[in-house]
Specification:
Helix content is 42%, strand content 13%. The protein is an alpha+beta fold. It has two domains: 2-112, no CATH class; 128-358, Aminoglycoside phosphotransferase (APH), C-terminal lobe (Aminoglycoside 3'-phosphotransferase, Chain: A, domain 2, Alpha-Beta Complex), CATH 3.90.1200. The strands form five sheets. It has a three-stranded antiparallel β-sheet, with helices on one face. It has a three-stranded antiparallel β-sheet with strand order 8-10-11. A two-stranded antiparallel sheet has the order 1-3. The longest helix has 18 residues, at 144-161. It is elongated and about 80 Å long. This is Aminoglycoside phosphotransferase.
Length: 359
């Protein structure tokens, strides 16, 4: 609960509005009884009376209540309020937004004036992109260190995924996003050329129908919600000497299905392996097995094999995309598309015999 005081409101108004500002009243809608501190942060609006250059005015300050409908996190709610701030000035007869702001961890109300785009400042870390290692391996330069790095990735994920959260609604949200979000399966499908000669509309329709069955299957696995990275692939890993590494761009709200992370990285071993032949073999098969075996040995999470298939579809659509990866040879792209079709056929993913999904 965010406690708002008269002084905090007055300071925010002075930093947001032009002219000389004096707060004269604060209370519930329909009342200006002085209330001092007021619980604020559960979607309950507050009526504010103030003077601006001596002219009496009123305003309403409100926030959003967190709920299970895609508003679990403060950044979800921020997006809605930013949308309202932007559109309120564009629609005729809509109430006009006077200010947009946030409450920091110290309880200060901080105004945001005329936002257009947002940015983030991160530390700079040393290292080379992991995909460069995979390109080296594809040229035949594989070492024991490459398998050791895959082992370290698996152990890092096992440690990350050890953190549990009991929130069935959030797991269901992640499943909805996996299938229907603009950044995930439905959005990726719409990003392919239409019609796409190498994966016809009828094949896309059949794929989507199978995924609806999987959506209902995953409803039985809400107990699996864990801390996840959400975008753990070779372009988001920086590697240093002695196989030390850093990760970039944690995505999709931290919490999700751990199979997402495992599928994301291991699908790229398949991608690079397909550049040599239409199946996983040689050094990439060895690295893939090392990654999966290490993860399962560390976690004992055999149940993941019952839920991971649609996450492979998501990542397969990403790396097979002619928009995101335009330079793939056609046979590589066709191989990935065959894989994401076939992987949905099994109730339990057979990671040891992955090549049966390449037929």
């Amino acid at each position: 609960m965010l406690e708002i005081t008269v002084d905090m409101i007055e300071r925010f108004l002075k930093e947001t509005l032009p002219g000389t500002i004096k707060l004269t009243g604060l209370g519930e809608i329909g009342s200006l009884d002085e209330q001092g501190m007021k619980d604020f942060g559960y979607g309950k609006p507050m009526l504010i009376a103030y003077e601006q250059d001596g002219v009496a005015k009123q305003a309403v300050i409100s926030s959003m209540r967190g709920d299970k409908y895609g508003h679990q996190f403060y950044w979800d709610r921020a997006a809605i309020l930013m949308f309202q701030y932007e559109t309120g000035t564009r629609i005729k007869q809509h109430v006009r937004p006077l200010g947009l702001g946030y409450a920091d961890k110290k309880g200060k109300l901080v105004p945001m004036k005329d936002p257009e785009e947002f940015f983030i400042l991160n530390e700079k870390v040393e290292g080379h992109d992991y995909f460069l290692d995979l390109e080296r391996i594809r040229k035949g330069q594989v070492t024991d260190s490459d398998r050791e790095l895959a082992r370290k990735f698996a152990l890092w994920l096992a440690d990350l995924h050890a953190e549990k959260r009991d929130d069935p609604d959030l797991y269901l949200r992640r499943t909805r996003q996996l299938i229907g979000d603009s950044e995930c399966i439905w959005g990726l499908v719409d990003g392919y050329p239409h019609p796409y000669e190498h994966f016809t509309p009828n094949r896309f329709i059949a794929l989507e129908k199978k995924l609806i069955d999987w959506r209902w299957k995953l409803r039985s696995f809400t107990h699996r919600l864990r801390a996840t990275h959400g975008d753990f692939h070779p372009w988001n890993v920086l590697v240093r000497e002695d196989n030390d590494f850093s990760v970039l761009d944690c995505s999709r709200g931290l919490w999700g299905e751990p199979g997402d992370d495992v599928a994301t990285m291991s699908c790229n071993y398949l991608l690079f392996g397909l550049y040599d032949q239409p199946r996983l073999s040689g050094p990439f098969e060895s690295i893939y097995r090392t990654f999966w075996d290490t993860y399962l040995d560390a976690t004992g999470d055999e149940e993941m094999l019952r839920v991971v298939a649609p996450y492979y579809v998501f990542r397969g659509l990403v790396i097979a995309s002619p928009e995101w990866y335009p330079n793939h040879p056609l046979e590589v792209r066709k191989g990935l598309l065959r894989f994401l079709e076939n992987v949905l056929e099994d109730e339990v993913f057979d990671y040891v015999h992955i090549n049966k999904y390449m037929e």
